[in-house]
Fold:
Amino acid sequence: MKKTILIIDDEKDQVDNLSRYLGANLPSDYHTIKAHEEADIIEKVDNAYYSLVVLDLRMDDYEIDGVKIANKIIETNSFAKILITSAFTAEFYQALKPLLLSGKVIDTVDKTSFTEFAEQVKNSIETYHDKLFASNDSIQNALLESYAECKNTEHNYQKGVKFENFVSLLFNNIGFDKIIKRNIDKSRNEVDLIIRNDIDDKFLEKFGKYFLIECKNMPVTNVDKNMFIVFKNKLENTASLSEFGIIATTGNFTSTAYIEAVRESGKDKKIVFLTNLHFERLIASIDRLETFKSFIDEQVKDN
Structure:
């Protein structure tokens, strides 16, 4: 998992200044993203990928406040933890108690002079990540937690959302930083996830600039030939931007889907299938990027 910090505050100057400070004082393997407008905050929480959120509590002109955002973060990203910053921590104490007891909040930092405040934030960020990244177990546990949530949720829509969140978290952990959810193009085709292929890897370079992922929450009814064809058409509509697609499912694939995949394997656009067995191997893997590439080796044939 990349060390990605999401900074949320309703004051643009505060977000910009803290982002600059962290960029100048944290090691190069950290990077920051930021949000200060209400709509952008919600969009980033839902669709950006981050290991830690630096979150201000008080947002005077917004319908949301830091507590509501924190609860949304916990619901959306089971991996991310929260660092609370505010000059008004006492004002929110009662609302904060459940969050503090949840184990999702790593620290609270009061806003004092900027230099002192920013240094405390930096130290908390480094302390947390040094402990987390010292062991693969913590990342594996977060993936297992997210996987279990999508498997155990009974409500179909929520199950589908949690499955997409799990797949997003998994691919972010593999090394992909930019993942877009629920993208609709000009032809009204909707793609569940679009991954920007920006990993420095010669093997993956040949598959185009973007990967498309279709997430199928179908634990009982398997993905069939027609579903494969619909997704293949979406992939073809990207022109040369994407040469590679993934159909991920909580169930399995029909024999006709496999036959159609083999029939199409000689074409430029490549599609691989991911099932529960693949997810379990990825979660347990020490090197998830290499494991993912091995799935491509197993399924993609240059006929």
Notes: Strands lie at 3-8, 30-35, 52-56, 81-86, 105-110, 179-184, 190-196, 210-216, 244-249, 270-274. Residues 137-299 form a domain with the Trna Endonuclease; Chain: A, domain 1 fold (CATH 3.40.1350.10).
